[in-house]
């Protein structure tokens, strides 16, 4: 009997406590937070607030940079925390093979250029002068042979010489005429030494050699790692002498623009209809107690995705679908990239207010 009385008493106390709590919640509509220890320090939140876990990241996102080819790291030019500008050289691979290939390609291109220039210019002036002199000499010999043949023909007609001598003179003239024609053809060939087909072939060979130079330059450029954005070096993962492989998912250097910080928030599917760009928000982190870092929702993804951020709660369901939301923080808060935080988004803001807030956040 005593045990039954105790049970009845406990039930009565539980019912009374539930009634009192319900009355209190009706007066002040709020719910308890259970997302993380940081969230527990903020004891209650208004019902219009959407709470979700997030991770701090640079406004440019973290850029995990690696080489385009496998190789051995030759030199790393930067250190963690160092500011860099877009295009700055960060690291290099050993490049002996690439440099040799480039030198060979440049030599082939130079030879092709010389051959093409020779065809375009034609024969040298000395060659042309020599060929013209041969034409003039052959022409003089031909003219002299013609005069001699005519003179002997007249003498033969007057019977001063035998007809055979006149025939020999005409034969000498024909030989001289043929030699003159050969000299003239040789001069024409020297004057216009190369055919259009030869010049076109040389042009194509030059283009091919030039393309091989560009290919070798591109191969050499792949041994250089450059910054894709201006920002700060967040992490250096490789040292000189270490092997880099495309088959191993590990960047050489990670950089990001931390002048402005974003928080990538994973909003639960039950709250996605209430969250939109322009709404005010703030985040809290375990390391900073109840300090609030104010911001604005600047982007809402168009698709749902898998949950990636873990809060550390054993009862957390990782199979829930979430919608990623970007919250841009104001000023320069002392948060670091990769820090896990809890975000509070004021979903009670009207669409007009949200649009005005978004315009204000986008202004420099």
Describe the structure.
This is Biotin/lipoyl attachment domain-containing protein. Residues 90-122, 199-226 form a coiled coil. Residues 95-220 form the YbhG-like alpha-helical hairpin domain. It comes from Oleidesulfovibrio alaskensis (strain ATCC BAA-1058 / DSM 17464 / G20) (Desulfovibrio alaskensis). By secondary structure, this protein is α+β, with helices and mostly antiparallel strands. It folds into 4 domains: 1-31; 33-59 and 258-362, Efflux pump adaptor protein, beta barrel domain (Elongation Factor Tu (Ef-tu), domain 3), CATH 2.40.30.170; 63-94 and 223-254, OB fold (Dihydrolipoamide Acetyltransferase, E2P) (Beta Barrel), CATH 2.40.50.100; 104-217. It is built from 7 helices and 17 strands. A hairpin with an 8-residue loop joins strand 13 (280-284) and strand 14. The longest helix has 33 residues, at 125-157. The chain is rod-shaped.
Short description:
The protein is an alpha+beta fold and 364 residues long. It is 43% helix and 24% strand.
Topology:
Elements: H1 2-27, E1 30-32, H2 37-41, E2 44-46, E3 49-58, E4 63-65, E5 71-76, E6 83-84, E7 89-93, H3 96-121, H4 125-157, H5 163-191, H6 196-221, E8 224-226, E9 231-236, E10 243-244, E11 253-256, E12 261-268, E13 280-284, E14 293-300, E15 305-306, E16 321-329, E17 340-346, H7 351-362
Antiparallel strand pairs: 1-2, 3-12, 3-17, 4-11, 5-7, 5-10, 6-9, 7-8, 9-11, 12-16, 13-14, 13-17, 14-16, 15-16
Helix pairs in contact: 3-6, 4-5
């Amino acid at each position: 009997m005593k045990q039954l009385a105790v049970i009845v008493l406990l039930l009565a106390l539980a019912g009374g406590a539930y009634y009192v709590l319900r009355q209190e919640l009706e007066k002040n509509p709020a719910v308890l937070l259970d997302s993380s220890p940081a969230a527990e320090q903020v004891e209650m939140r208004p019902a219009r607030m959407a709470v979700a876990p997030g991770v701090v990241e640079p406004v440019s996102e973290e850029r995990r940079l690696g080489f385009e080819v496998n190789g051995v790291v030759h030199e790393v030019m930067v250190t963690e925390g160092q500011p860099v500008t877009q295009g700055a050289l960060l690291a290099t691979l050993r490049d002996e093979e690439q440099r040799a290939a480039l030198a060979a390609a440049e030599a082939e291109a130079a030879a092709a250029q010389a051959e093409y220039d020779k065809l375009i210019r034609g024969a040298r002036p000395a060659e042309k002068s020599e060929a013209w002199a041969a034409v003039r000499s052959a022409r003089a010999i031909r003219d002299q042979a013609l005069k001699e043949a005519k003179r002997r023909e007249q003498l033969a007609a007057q019977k001063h010489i035998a007809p055979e001598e006149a025939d020999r003179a005409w034969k000498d003239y024909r030989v001289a005429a043929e030699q003159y024609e050969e000299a003239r053809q040789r001069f024409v060939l020297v004057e216009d030494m190369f055919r259009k087909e030869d010049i076109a072939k040389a042009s194509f060979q030059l283009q091919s050699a030039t393309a091989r130079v560009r290919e070798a330059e591109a191969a050499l450029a792949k041994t250089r790692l450059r910054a894709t954005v201006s920002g700060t070096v967040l992490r250096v993962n490789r040292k000189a002498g270490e092997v880099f492989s495309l088959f191993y998912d590990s960047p050489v250097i990670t950089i990001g623009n931390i002048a402005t910080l974003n928080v990538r928030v994973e909003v639960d599917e039950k709250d996605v209809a209430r969250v939109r760009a322009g709404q005010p928000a703030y985040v809290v982190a375990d390391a900073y107690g109840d300090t609030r870092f104010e911001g604005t929702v600047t982007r809402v993804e168009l698709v749902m995705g898998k949950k990636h951020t873990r809060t550390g709660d054993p009862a957390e369901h990782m199979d829930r679908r979430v919608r990623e939301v970007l919250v841009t923080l104001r000023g320069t808060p002392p948060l670091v990239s990769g820090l896990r935080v809890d975000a509070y988004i004021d979903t009670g803001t009207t669409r007009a207010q949200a649009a005005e807030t978004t315009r204000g956040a986008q202004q420099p």
